[in-house]
Amino acid sequence: MRRALLACAAVAAVVVADAGWRMLNLHWFAFVGYSLLIWAVLPVLATLALTFVITLVSDVELPMWCTAGIAALATGTWMGWAVGPTYGGITYGGVVAAGILAVGLVLDSRRPLRSRLLLAALTAAATAAVTALGFAAL
């Protein structure tokens, strides 16, 4: 379940970076908290539940690419559906999902903790920059 928690941390990192990029003023913390509630809670719960059931049934811990893939698919689908096809929801969800997968794989790498956290933050920020600049209509 450690990998599932890392995948959930990847979801939170990308959602926080995306929200922070869009709201750079005094109400930043409120907007980030709101974004975590509407964008991250459902995918995190789905990721934890699905990895728990798969681990319970198969008695084997899933590899990180699979766990991060579940989190990325859940979050990308959720955010893409909510954005809608009018504003490029499928592409937006795909970019968010790719960022979550990358952050999850970075967090599970064998690098020292500081470099993992730095690379994860940079990857989340890059994902947020791509979504904010590529989807300025949102």
Mind explaining what this structure looks like?
- By secondary structure, the protein is an all-alpha fold.
- The chain is built from five helices and no strands.
- The termini are far apart.
Quick structural overview:
By secondary structure, the protein is an all-alpha fold. It is about 80% helix and about 0% strand.
What is the averaged pLDDT score? 87
Radius of gyration, in angstroms, nearest whole number: 15 Å
As an assembly, this protein is: single chain
| Low-pLDDT runs | none
Binned, the helix content reads: over 70%
Helix segment tally: 5
Straight-line N-to-C gap? 35 Å
Compressed to H and E, one letter per element, the order equals HHHHH
Report strand %. Answer: under 5%
Number of strands: 0
* Shape field: globular
Structural class: mainly alpha
Main sheet summary: none
Sequence-ordered SSE layout with sheet pairings:
Layout: H1 2-22, H2 28-58, H3 64-83, H4 89-107, H5 113-134
List keywords for this structure.
single chain; 138 residues; mainly alpha; 5 helices; 0% strand
